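As the next step, I selected for study a record pairing a protein sequence with its backbone structure tokens, which the following lines show:
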Amino acid sequence: MRRDVFQAIADPTRRDIIQLVAEEPLSINEIAKKFEVSRPAISKHLKILNECGIIGIHQQGRERYCSMLPQNLLPAFLWIEQYKNLWENRIDNFEDYLKKLQTNTNNNERNN
């Protein structure tokens, strides 16, 4: 099964793992200790993140460490970015509409 970055970031636990390893490389045990789910569940999440190329896993002595590969989040970032301007424009238009309503309300109160 071919996985992509969107599948990886769809799960909140995986997003939390990404956040953790973005700060510093952590061992699998260190990551697992930060969650209230089983170690096998965390291992499954790590496998998906690794398959999608979002984290790298490397052996150091007896421990396996996970580190973030931020460049592989670029497809998700670019996809989301295309909607940024759309939503910013809609929010700006909504703010303008609210200001106009407020102005009309204030004018009506003064005229009464």
Notes: The beta strands are 26-27, 55-60, 63-68. The first strand starts at residue 26 and ends at 27.
